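Changelog-adjacent note: as of this version, every example in the card shows the full chain rather than a window. The one below runs 691 residues end to end.
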Amino acid sequence: MSKAPTPTPGGTQKQNGTSSPEGTQPKPSPKPTSALTSALSQQKNAEAEVGSGRLETILSEPSSSPSSESAISSLQEAQLCPPDAFPCLYFRELTGAVDVSMFEEDSAAVSLRVGTPINEWSLGRSAGSSLSRSLGGSFLGRDDTGTPVADYEENPFSRRAAEFVPSPNLNNARWNALGSPSIEANYLTEAVVGSLPKAMTPSERTRMSSRLGASPSLKDVKDIPEERISARTVEGRALRRRLLKGKVMIFITAGYSGKRFIYERIKELGVRSVMIDGPESWSRILEDEGVLEKFVPFDWSDNDTVFDRCLEACKRVEQELGQVDGVVSFWEIAQPLVARLAETLGLPGNLPDSVDAAREKQRTRAVMAEVGLPTPKNLLISGFEDLRKAAQHVGFPAVIKPISGAASLGVVRVDSYEALETTYKRAMAEMGAIRLDKDGNFVSADSDLAVKEQTGAAGTAYVANLFLMEQYLDGPEVDVDVLLSKGEPVYGSITDNWPTIEPYFNETGSNCPSILPLDQQKQLCQLAVQAVKALGFTMGAFHVEGKYTSHGPHIIEVNARMGGGPVRDINKIVYGVDLIEEHLLTAAGIPTKPLVAARPLKHIAEYSVNAKQTGVLLTKDYLQDWVDHPDVLYIRALVDEGQRVVCAEDGMPTWMYEMMITKPTVEEAIEFIKGIEEAVHIPIAKVAALK
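Full-length structure tokens:
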């Protein structure tokens, strides 16, 4: 591959010693070696070594599970990853032109605003409103009318997760000053999930189905031949959209404000959306703007009654708006509640047991091992006394991670027993033993004794303190996005994830299509489908994270939802598939086989850039030269002026800005985005210099 041109602002390029046609490019300040350049170099070397078999084994011992490659016949391969559903694996075999006109009318549906937090679109008002973020976890502020607004904070490890991170810095005194009832009232938490009722038994489910009959959406489609509804044609897509239009769909918690684009797209599809969320949720403004048909304020406190109260709220919606066609959420922590509501209401949905098994990492591993899929050695840690046994069973290097949760929240690599002890103690304080005291304040495990002395009882458990220790998986990491309809895979794509920043596994960037060897891509996609089906899922979008290791393909985790961050836009831009639309169709009981581009419509790379030094950001206007570049789909700052930022050498690194670019080939896209990162100077002042 020839060297990609050095990127310059405004679309001009400089190559082979020639100058830009007009203007002078600002001279970049001296900067450290690019973290991305180093990471990609490491990935390239690792991929070559994995492919040639030279990579030294770093797992404690070989996996006893059969390899995916040897276990799959040609027939099974076609069933697991059909060519019409997984063009990512077959487009290289195509010759001639591919008609892309059928995707052009949908080009406006790509928001390219994914991940934009509330203070960027500022409740429809000017930037810099009175909203203010806390030091972590969530934030509460006032909009310009003086009304309190609550939002979640993004997961500091993963742009694809946007998971809520509890923070000891929040307290009810601040909330009360703003007229808010409590922290607990506004946030759906793991404590609520732990109090949900058990899933129905098969016999209970059969009796419930007999009593309720077919769901409303199933009645709508029963007289239409399925081959017409699920046809991979423009006409089939139009028919599915007509069936979806006007459906009443209930959404359980909106997630963080960067997910606004989801509900705007749902409005475009003509769905009548009802949001059930905390009384101060940012999403309530969507009702005023006409994006939602109805906002239902819901108090998430009193964990033991949440399910019954939420069920009654759904029934009241039906009395007011007519039949409810589906219940759904694009937020990780809401999935167990959604599954139980759908089951009880007789609406389409995945089984609660499947959702629970996907969210609990040890159960995921157990299910996969039971059906003979590759599984790393692992052991549950429920207390300090389990550390020695876990170390002996799993070996080093290894990772420890919370048993429940999304993406890389709290995942840390450990290379020795001493590191395991230190990391476990810190993880318990930060992730595993956050509690609410009698005043609603978040306190760590170290503070719990004081809480007990003050109240006569320990604080309310907030996050489960169970961790999983498992073998560290070497090799390149990928995301496989899978869509199921009626139990079968109808779409899939694979995206390369660039190396994370260890030991925190902080995400960096990705590219699509994948540049891994085709055989490795096939094995990873096949394993992703096998894992989703082994867990018992039958419908909806799934975000599966995996690695191709020196022992073959392995699954990191299965997320029972559409991936966050750039995932929706990547699939829409590259293959023309809108996972928002497709997930809604399945939730409404409408069978689907999405119209998929036979070869990539665009080749993209996206990158979330971390701080190169610790300090304070002086200005957020350092990206303006690149905003209008024709190959830059978006580039935007993630940190406000005056905010303290941290580099990887000093702790969990801070994401400074994110960008997505397109080029004729993936290789060119990767080189171009590397060039932008190296050219951009982030104005960070060292904290010491400000004293």
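Structural remarks: Residues 35-52 form the longest helix (18 residues).
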